[in-house]
Amino acid sequence: MGNLCQKVNNNPPRSPGNSGGISTGDVDIGELDGPLSKAEYNERVVSCPMTRLKLKSVTMSYSFFSQRGYYPDDLSKANQDSYFVNAPFNGDEDFAFFAVLDGHGAKGHLCAQFARDAVQANLKQLLDAGTEFDVAYPRSFILANEQLHKSRIDDTMSGTTCIGMCIKDGWLEIANSRFSCDHRM
Q1: Where are the domains of the chain?
Q2: Is 80-179 a CATH 3.60.40.10 domain?
Q3: What does the alpha-carbon distance between residue 120 and residue 125 come to, in Å, rounded to a whole number?
Q4: Of 35, 39, 152, 160, which residue is most buried, by most CB within 10 angstroms?
Q5: C-alpha 154: how far from its chain's center?
């Protein structure tokens, strides 16, 4: 996640200059109409308020919000979402890499965490080896999927989706990948 997010108070300022932070809980959710109390709901939330990021060629703001699902038969089921904000990426002051991953299946949280780390490591390795960005970016996702299948994580009936976004030298590149369940027989 880098150092762009950290614990913050309940009501951080929502201005473009806000440095941001991770908040777990105390989200203003208004009236509740469901099986969870406000405290139980807030235990399921991870968020980052509006954060300003300045690269050489662009200034932008971002935030995120994730809520662990409600499963009546498994109240402590792990949040299967994962994400990263990596800026500057690979030491380049004009390069930011973001992604949101949504795990699914019994080991979806592990698949999402594995893919989160592998995609970043693969892109760095490919770029450091001199691979052009237009080749390295999609290849980093393909490699991560192959690595997940070879890992110790049982992805037989689990996997993750990933939406990645790179801002590099003022250009925006978006990738949509599905680290599919492994259907090896």
Answers
A1: 1-70, 80-179
A2: yes
A3: 9
A4: 160
A5: 21
Q: Are strands 159-168 and 171-179 parallel, antiparallel or unpaired?
A: antiparallel
Peptide bond into 88 cis (omega under 30): yes
Contacts of 14 (CB under 8 A, 6+ apart): 49, 50
Encoded amino acid at 152, one letter = R
Give the chain's mean pLDDT: 80
- CA pair distance 83, 97, nearest whole angstrom: 11
According to DSSP, the residues that pair with 161 across neighbouring strands are: 102, 178
pTM: 0.76
Contacts of 86 (CB under 8 A, 6+ apart): 2, 96, 97, 98, 120
Give the tens place of pLDDT for each residue, 23-33: 445 555 556 66
78's torsion region: left (phi>0), alpha (psi -120 to 50) or beta? beta
Q: Which of 137, 184, 183 shows the shortest CA–CA distance to 162?
A: 137
* DSSP bridge partners of 104: 159
Rounded Cα–Cα distance for residues 62 and 49 (Å): 8
Integer angstrom CA distances of residue 9 from 18, 26, 64, 128: 13, 9, 16, 39
